[in-house]
Amino acid sequence: MAVFDFNDYVLELTIAGNDFKVNCTAEMGDKVAEHGKSFAKLAEEIKAGNKMAAHVVSMCREVTDDILGAGAFKAIFKGRTPNVMDCSDVLKFVMGEMTERYKKQGNREARRAATKTKPAGGKK
To answer: For residues 44 and 39, what is the distance between their CA atoms, to the nearest angstrom?
Structure first.
């Protein structure tokens, strides 16, 4: 008898002692791609002098909570003042792990999503 089981697309991450689960579906890849566009726009505004580092931290808070779940940013930075470098490091880690997970999943949708979640510069 043929048997079908759903694939498990959940990526488990531990960041600053906190455990998170990310469902690495194509829909999540699309969401991450949209966040990437928002970061690119913010970078242009910073270059033009219209935005400051505080805007980067604020956007990182939104993106982190959107991907890892409400309150994730607060849990990760508990007892630590968020700064641009730390926020960037957290998101690069998350995106790098998601990209690796999408590659391992191996299906067409997963590969499509993986191209959307690559960290800046294409490296982890």
So the answer is: 9
Facing residues of 22 across strands? 11
pTM of the model as a whole: 0.78
> Could you tell me which residues come within 8 angstroms of residue 119 by beta carbon, excluding any fewer than 6 positions away?
91, 92, 95, 96, 99
32: Cα separation from own chain's centroid: 6
Residue 119 contacts residue 95 (beta carbons within 8 Å): yes
68 contacts 20 by C-beta, under 8 angstroms: yes
Helix then strand then coil, in percent of the chain rounded to 5, is 60, 10, 30
Q: What φ, ψ does residue 50 adopt, rounded to 5°? A: -90, -15
93-114 tens-digit pLDDT = 999 999 888 888 775 555 566 5
Taking phi over 0 as left and psi of -120 to 50 as alpha, with beta for the rest, 123 belongs to beta
Judged by DSSP in three states, 119 sits in coil
Structure tokens at 71: 């309150």
Residue with tokens 């505004």: 45
